[in-house]
Amino acid sequence: MVDDRAVFVGEHLVRTFGATTAVRDVSCVVGEGARIAVTGASGSGKSTLLHLIAGIDEPTGGTAGWPRLDGHPRQHPGRIGIVLQRPALLPTLDVGENVALPLLLAGRPAESARLAAGDTLALLGLTELVDRLPHELSGGQAQRVAVARAVAARPQLIVADEPTAAMDTDGAAHLVDALLAVADRTCAALLLATHDTAVADRLQQRWHVVDGTIEPRPEPSC
Q1: Strand partners of residue 31
Q2: What is the DSSP letter of 68?
Q3: What is the pLDDT of residue 1?
C-alpha cells in the first residue's frame, strides 16, 4: 500500500509519440518532502517523465495519480509548480505581475494575489525587482523570478525541468539554493531534472533515466 503522504504515484507509466516510446513501464512514487534529482542523457525521456508527473501530459499506458490532490492537477491550479529551462516571463508585465498572474488565473482576488506575489519574492530575496520588466533582468534573475511564479501558490510539488541548463556554475548554485529554500519553507517535494552532477549531488535521491526507464528502479521517497 502506498503511503497516503505521497504527492505522486505512477504505475507502469508509458508515453509514446507515434512509433517512439519516450517513457516505458515506469513505476515511481514521489513522497512528501522528497528531494529527487532526475538525470540521464538528452533524449532519455527525463522531460517526458517530468511532464507526466506534473500533469501537463497524459500517459499512453499505465496510471498517474496524485493522492493528496484527490483528482488531476488541472483541477487544482497551483498545487504543482513547474519551472522550465527558460523563464518565459510575459514581457509586458513587471516582475510582481508575472508572479501574481497564475494566482489570478486560478481565481485568487487581485489584492490577495499581489500580496502573495510580494511575499514569495521576499522569500527568494527578489523584492527589489518587483517593478522591473523582464528585459531589465539578468538571466539568473529571470530564472529566479520564474521559480517565484511557480511557487507563489505554495504547491505540494515543484517540478523543475533543466532549470540551470543555461547557467554558469555560480548561477546554477544560486538557483538550486532558491529552489531548496522555497521547497523547505513551503514543505513541498522537489523533482529536478539536470545534466549537472554538482546540482544532482545536492538532492537526497537520484533517478537515472535510460531509454525511457529509471535504472535502478526508484525506492519510494516518502
Answers
A1: none
A2: T
A3: 42
Residue 175 has pLDDT above 70, yes or no: yes
- Chain centroid offset of residue 119 CA: 19
Q: Per-domain residue ranges for the chain?
A: 33-57+71-204
Three-state SS letters, 120-148: HHHHCCCHHHCCCCHHHCCHHHHHHHHHH
Cα(31)–Cα(8) distance, integer angstroms: 7
- Structure confidence at residue 216 (pLDDT): 64
Spatial CB neighbours of 182, under 8 Å, sequence gap ≥ 6: 120, 123, 124, 147, 151, 158, 188
181 within 8 A of 27, measured Cβ to Cβ: no
CA 86 to each of CA 145, 152, 161, 217: distance values in angstroms, whole numbers, following the listed order: 11, 18, 9, 30
Nearest to 197 by CA among 40, 27, 35: 40
Site of grid cell 501558490: 153
CATH code for the part of the protein at 33-57+71-204: 3.40.50.300
From the list 90, 84, 83, 175, the residue with the least C-alpha distance to 134 is: 90
How far is residue 71 from each of residues 24, 131, 155, 207, measured CA to CA in Å?
Answer: 24, 36, 15, 25
pLDDT at 145: 94
Q: Is the pLDDT assigned to residue 4 strictly greater than 80?
A: no
pLDDT digits (tens, 9 = 90+) for 179-188: 999 899 888 9
